[in-house]
């Protein structure tokens, strides 16, 4: 039988779903005869059908490299699809780029091209090709999503929103189209996003999927005014109610319901409002979704009367980062003859993680692929802990979901994300005695437990780089105020106060930093222009925006500036600690909640004199203090000297670690004694 006939026989077998017969047909031909492009392509397709991707790749490479024939479109198409299956997007994109150039009428080739467009350069090339051939980018959701991202990458925000709007009209009954539109509007036009969503989306969102939940619970990073914050919070509350109702009725498995929660309520904490009610509603929702999964993660034995208390820490931030710096000593210094420490590190590992490995009794590392709710919860439960501590609930979905499960008799939260978790499964919230206002218990669903001072043991920062203003890209001879906080901390009240300070200090300039997100600098510029223009300040002339720096260079920028400006409602944490380490005075307005009182607590720890000079009573007083200090170099220098002399009170204070140890020894055994026998 000829090789052509065998290829036809193999193709018929493939259409019938019999990959083994197809492979046998091709391989029955002599080796020389079956070394044709069509035969090797068919063999590759059969291997791919059977899941044997390595052999599929070898066969398709032979087909492409065949010396006597031009590469046929079908061969390139299969090569691209195999490369996608092998997670080789660069190779896949190269094949589909060739295909759409020679056969632009083939819709499937465009679909695969956009599927392979894995980064900004390839998305840009795909966009240019699509436009050149007038391809409708909203025809398919998968294409529309990547195409809109390509528009964002290239700075075409209006076009990205327009494409999302067209896609929504074309796929109005698909929750993914709603999410694409919501995401683009909230990201790219946050000041007008609420009006846009209200007019474009139904009052009852399509909630029964992850995309639908995201639409209902999305929040922008910045707001036009306080009324907008109120309206967004009301929308969020309605979204929680609808999500709870629709997910309970959705025809999804328990694990699928849990996966519908892809994001935390991170943005709520930056509104400067009491989040207890909303966090409690969200906590009850997450608990209702995770509770059915607990049986799969139950301990294999009952916690007994052990010589050492087992204490676990689970975090996505067991690495060189803010949360890691806050609580590393909690994980490294507790292990002794009475306490056995288990650390569950999820995500990124670095030298910081390895340092903890040397001190903890057990460190269980889960990389990004292994960090699943099932894998981590099972590992924790099998270790039969007495106490489980979460350093930062509310920053990562995985951690929030784990915390919503009962994996230890006593479960606690540290203040890495400084707001109540709202979870019924978290028994205790550890905060700092210096951070909390009177009556703070009313802000938490958990039992509030105060540790000394800042409730942390923050290491002294390294020295700054020895760089001048000129080397840092800063002007000489003018007063420089710096606010190193992320844009989402700039609430409308604070932004207006800064604008008034600049208006009253015409010689001064403001230094800010770019965020990590694409386009965040441009959006932040627009936000500042919106608010500054209302008091007659030209943001383009008065604001210096710096790129993100190494930590040593960041500290050098702080040292080179004259005055730090602390945000309202959610003050600086590690940023203020860094500022004080180089002696920079920081003006602050203490908030109603702990998260707005971090800088205030640091100033109070250093000295009453420093506190009296830099702590404002209200927004007007904040503007007065700031304006006065920007005009008084001698006063600023005196404050620098005082801060440098007193900043040692802020760093390497182990009293919180000692207090936690004492608390564990007092209460952990009691909690373990109340534990119910494990369910089998």
Record keyword descriptors for this entry.
single chain; alpha/beta; Rossmann fold; 3 domains; seven-stranded parallel beta sheet; 12 strands; globular; disordered C terminus
Please provide a brief summary of the model.
With 680 residues, this protein is an alpha/beta fold.
The stretches of 5 or more residues where confidence is low (pLDDT under 50) are: 675-680
Note the main sheet.
Answer: 7 strands, parallel
Share of residues in helices: 40-55%
Shape: globular
Task: Return the CATH topology of the largest domain.
Answer: Rossmann fold
CATH class of the largest domain: Alpha Beta
| Strand segment tally | 12
Q: What order do the strands of the largest sheet run in, or round the barrel if closed?
A: 3-2-1-4-5-6-7
Beta-strand share of residues: 5-15%
> What number of domains?
3
By helix and strand content, what is the structural category?
alpha/beta
């Amino acid at each position: 039988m000829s090789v052509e006939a065998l290829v036809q026989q193999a193709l018929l077998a493939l259409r019938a779903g019999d990959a083994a017969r197809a492979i046998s047909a091709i391989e029955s031909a002599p080796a020389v005869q079956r070394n044709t492009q069509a035969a090797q392509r068919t063999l590759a397709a059969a291997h791919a059908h059977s899941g044997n991707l390595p052999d599929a790749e070898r066969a398709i490479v032979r087909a492409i490299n065949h010396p006597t024939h031009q590469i046929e479109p079908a061969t390139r198409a299969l090569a691209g699809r195999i490369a996608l299956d092998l997670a080789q997007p660069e190779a896949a994109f190269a094949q589909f780029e060739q295909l759409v150039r020679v056969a632009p009428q083939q819709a499937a080739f465009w679909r695969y091209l956009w599927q392979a467009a894995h980064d900004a350069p390839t998305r840009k090339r795909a966009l240019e090709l699509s436009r050149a051939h007038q391809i409708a980018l909203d025809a398919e959701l998968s294409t529309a999503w990547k195409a809109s991202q390509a528009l964002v990458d290239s700075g075409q925000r209006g076009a990205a929103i327009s494409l999302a709007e067209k896609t929504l009209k074309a796929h109005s009954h698909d929750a993914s189209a709603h999410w694409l539109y919501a995401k683009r509007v909230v990201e790219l036009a946050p000041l007008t996003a609420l009006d846009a969503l209200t007019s474009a989306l139904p009052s009852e969102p399509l909630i029964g999927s992850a995309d639908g939940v995201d639409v209902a619970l999305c929040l922008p990073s910045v707001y036009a005014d306080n009324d907008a914050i109120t309206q967004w919070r009301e929308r969020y509350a309605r979204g929680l109610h609808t999500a709870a109702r629709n997910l309970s009725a959705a025809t999804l498995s328990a694990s699928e319901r849990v996966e519908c929660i892809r994001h935390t309520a991170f943005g709520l904490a930056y509104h400067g409002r009491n989040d207890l009610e909303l966090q409690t509603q969200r906590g009850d929702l997450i608990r209702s979704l995770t509770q059915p999964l607990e049986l799969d993660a139950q301990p294999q034995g009952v916690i007994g009367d052990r010589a050492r208390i087992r204490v676990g820490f689970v975090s996505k931030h067991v690495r060189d980062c803010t949360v890691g710096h806050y609580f590393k000593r909690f994980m490294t210094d507790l292990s002794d003859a009475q306490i056995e420490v288990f650390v569950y590190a999820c995500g990124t590992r670095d030298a910081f993680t390895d340092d903890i490995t040397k001190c903890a009794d057990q460190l269980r590392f889960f990389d990004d692929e292994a960090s699943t709710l099932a894998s981590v919860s099972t590992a924790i439960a099998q270790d039969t802990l007495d106490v489980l501590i979460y350093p930062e609930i509310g920053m990562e979905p995985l951690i929030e979901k784990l915390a919503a499960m009962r994996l230890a008799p006593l479960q606690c939260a540290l203040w890495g994300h400084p707001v109540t978790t709202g979870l019924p499964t978290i028994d205790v919230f550890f905060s700092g005695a210096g951070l909390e206002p009177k009556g703070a218990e009313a802000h938490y669903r958990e039992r509030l437990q105060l540790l000394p001072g800042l409730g942390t043991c923050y290491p002294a920062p390294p020295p700054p780089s020895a760089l001048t203003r000129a080397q840092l890209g800063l002007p000489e001879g003018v007063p420089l105020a710096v606010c190193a906080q992320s844009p989402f901390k700039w609430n409308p009240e604070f932004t207006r106060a800064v604008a008034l300070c600049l208006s009253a200090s015409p010689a001064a300039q403001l230094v800010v930093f770019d965020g990590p997100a694409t386009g965040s600098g441009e959006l932040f510029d627009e936000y500042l222009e919106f608010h500054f223009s209302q008091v007659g300040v030209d943001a383009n002339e008065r604001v210096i925006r710096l790129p993100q720096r190494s930590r040593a260079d960041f500290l050098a920028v702080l040292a080179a500036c004259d005055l730090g400006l602390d945000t309202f409602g959610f003050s600086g944490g590690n940023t203020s600690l860094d500022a004080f380490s180089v002696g920079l005075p920081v003006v602050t307005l203490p908030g109603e909640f702990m998260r707005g009182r971090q800088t205030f607590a640091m100033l109070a720890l250093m000295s009453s004199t420093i506190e009296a000079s830099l702590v404002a009573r209200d927004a007007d007083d904040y503007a007065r203090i700031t304006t006065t200090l920007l005009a008084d170099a001698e006063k600023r220098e005196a404050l620098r000297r005082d801060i440098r002399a007193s900043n040692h009170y802020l760093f390497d204070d182990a009293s919180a670690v000692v207090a936690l140890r004492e608390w564990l020894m007092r209460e952990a055994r009691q909690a373990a004694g109340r534990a119910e026998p494990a369910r089998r």
